[in-house]
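User: I'm curious what two different proteins look like when written out as structure tokens. Can you demonstrate?

Assistant: Sure. I'll show them one after the other, since each token string lines up with its own sequence. Here's the first protein:
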Amino acid sequence: QGNMAFAGKYEFEGDENYDEFVKKIGLPSDKIELGRNCKIVTEVVQNGNDFTWTQHFPGGRTTSNTFTIDKEANMETMGGKKFKATVKMEDGKLVADFPNYHHTAEISGGKLVEISASSGVVYKRTSKRIA
């Protein structure tokens, strides 16, 4: 399992089903507008099974989650909700259950591909490696 596969910086490139998904998970409309086609830069620091996953939003806001594979960690959603989750590694993908959606992240073709699913709505976000 390519252990350092995730480390790097990635810039938002495109997404699918954004509006349908954020409405489904109950994101307030001001946050929906902020996030639409937002050039989020995702920075991943990986040391073995320890990760720090930071999202830099335009305008200087950042959210950061630190976790270890297979250990419960305190996390924060894109809407700012705090919760506990255990991130697992399955077939080279990071897998986590957020309060109202299931999330996977993988490196595919040098890109960071994140998929969130909630009640049948699948949101896909692709980011290209910039560092």
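Here's a second, unrelated protein for contrast:
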Amino acid sequence: MSSKRMSLALKYMQAAKEMDFSTIMAMRSPSCTHLFHPSSLGVRPPIDNATYEANLVRFKDIISGFPMTIKETLEDEKKNQIMIWAEGGQSWFPEAKDPGFSEEEWNFTREYIFILSLDESGEKIERMVEFVDTKATEQLRLLLARAQENVK
């Protein structure tokens, strides 16, 4: 039987796959913060919901989804947290891609670790820590910039 934490984590992963902004934002508590790590990417302060949503919206014309495969999960009942180790990538809209990069470069896979800390009800994400694949994130930044130029 799936726990409430696991159900929430799976719902989040499905919403990310589909770029379902309204579901993603509805899953976050009003005071939810999001941190990106490792710090080798540059130290960033936690971001609030408004900033997080603005970041998602930036991708709406270039990325159709973030399909990921969960490799492992770990629940901590005492801390009301769930950790997800996943791999995947982004699905680009065709007009976002150009032949300046190969299909393999556009469609590479990255690894992530998400730590979701839930509110007391277990129904909202209060804090999310997202560890990203540092090397692959640098490639993703290049592709995002390129894709945004392609759809202008």
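A detail about the second structure: The two ends are 47 Å apart (CA to CA).
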